[in-house]
Records
---
Amino acid sequence: MLRVGMLTSGGDCQALNATMRGIVKGLQNIYGDLEIYGFIDGYKGLIYGKYKKLKPEDFSGLLSKGGTILGTSRMPFKEIDLPLPDGTEKIPSMKETYKKLKLDVLCVLGGNGSLKTANRLYEEGLNVVGLPKTIDNDIWGTDMTFGFQSAIDVATHAIDCIYTTAESHSRIFVVEIMGHKVGWITLYAGIAGGADVILLPEMPYDIKKVYKAVEKRMKDKGFAIVCVAEGAMTKEIAKLPKKDKKAVLAEKAQKYPSVAYEVADLMKEKFDSDIRVAIPGHTQRGGAPDAYDRLLTSRFGAKAAELIKAKDFGKLVVLKDNVVDAIPLAETAGKLKYVDLDNQAIAEAKTLGICFGD
């Protein structure tokens, strides 16, 4: 009988349950009998030996259920070798739980930090398979992460709703989309939602160019939509040394709740129009996974089951050119997949007249 451990770590997303279902269905079809240990609240459950003992039938109906039945929490990798407040050592405790339960494999559903920890556990001798979870789509080595497309759908719907009210009241709306370090959601949702300006963390902006684009839009249509990623910043700030940049951003955080309010404030210096801020926020993580993510996670789950059958551990399931494959966890650990400034979608968006402020 195969003994499988599973955990969901880091930020939540719509397709965690669907991915676990895919893994279990694949393994059940291959092995028949399974013992499944679902660790509560991510790596914390593995550390403290808190888990749910589950049966394959417990995963029935999860394809369309958002969130995670196991719960999740963040465990920063940079602190992985630091003891918890109660003195518990993280890595040794995780290894002890794994061995105590006599697990054959641990499936980790997580983003960048979670996968770095997964790779560390593999290096420590545990059988680990990783699956790429994040709405940000910033995991190096895979074209797509599960949760990304569902987040785009939510963000695009929010822009659609803002579009009609902006048009009705002749307003300028600044819509803030999730993405501190990378701007994939903002890029895709901004294009899909018909935004006039898209500001990304990877492309520091010149506010004067943003003014010009919004001014033209207001003259032509009477309203405008500016999509801003959480980590967007001006060219002036981007040029600062790391220490000075950090100080400036900390000062701005005291003045503005988020970057969208700063951009809106700058707009008020130039335009007499009514300027509003809209922040979809955590709705982008919530709700049911869309059809694409259901398909993707089913494929990912099947691939994870195949890796386990082959005893091919220390791997991350990935999608490359629409082919589901696997790469070593060590290859992706610690790397972020940023929006490439030569990305074809950016060039095409510029052809459509979308301004990036660069």
Note: The radius of gyration is 22 Å.
---
Amino acid sequence: MSFTDEQMERYSRHFVLDEIGFQGQRKLLNAKVLVIGAGGLGSPAAMYLAAAGVGMIGIADADEVDLSNLQRQILHGTQDAGRAKVLSAKETMNRMNPDVTVHAYRMLVNADHIMDLIRDYDFIIDATDNIPSKFLINDACVMAEKPFSHAGVIRFQGQLMTYVPGEGPCYRCVFRDPPPKNAVPTCKQVGVVGAMCGVIGSLQAMEAIKYITGAGHLLTGTLLTCDALDMRFRRVPLPEDTSDCPVCGTHPTITDLKNSSVYPAGALS
């Protein structure tokens, strides 16, 4: 494909990067990334993917914009209060970059249809805020052989890892089973700094861009953690032996999403 004059200017800072260049930008424009969650993590991830020129971006969320979201969910503005998050997100991304086709999915992502949702995408970003959804996304991506970025934030802390089929452990290899209900506090209960979402969500976009272009090294086999109060990043090596994982192991026991009680219907809210 040839680039228009507008694209030559828009992506000029990518073109001069040896790791991306013209070939990498073509890959981005032909790529398809799905962001599940249009909140604190999904906002910076989706915005940077759109700015980078990822050709097709899907964004899935069932919620409406609330004023309490705006401290961290930068896809939305005060005027969007009460509107569907995915529609606000689509408008923001379309204003940012006309090269990008945005598909808005206003839905509760659950075991009944997640496989259909992820089927056409090259990379999945888990930008959800609840544990059942994270296990659901992990298991679906493993079964569908889709790479994805997991992340989570709370207070001043964040973490992320990347799964690529055949190249390292999945989320369930690290966190085998969901904790008991109400055992893990939520951001609503204990708070989160908005900028922390920006740091981690931007890194998720970076992982997607690296996967698409082939630049650098992905966070496969590594959990990256960040403590913003001390501004300390740590790389935690993950288990290399994944053979006994119940979903990506040698003899998986989780083979059907619909029959699992780990993630009830309507897990993503």
Note: The mean pLDDT is 94.
---
Amino acid sequence: MATVAVTDDTFDAEVKNSDIPVVVDFWAEWCGPCKQIGPSLEELAIEFEGKVKIAKVDVDSNPNAAAAMGVRGIPALFIFKDGQVVSNRAGAAPKAALQSWIKESI
């Protein structure tokens, strides 16, 4: 499964009400570091298929979800488990670092 595009309208259904943990990437098209981690997140979405959902929220099109999470800079990553944030991090990171962060958090 590839990453899932999430909007302000689908945030609760896709993220908070998910039956598996969800990594949420708050990003924007103009953000260089966001583009840097994009391919890694796509690969991780396939690696963690069935165990973790990886969702992407474009902050320009969906400012409410970002505001509700207190996002001030992007990329901002959050891990939700049972509807609650269990971990978060900001900035770009290598795929291996993202992978170990996800494994530790779920």
Note: Residues 52 and 69 are 20 Å apart (CA to CA).
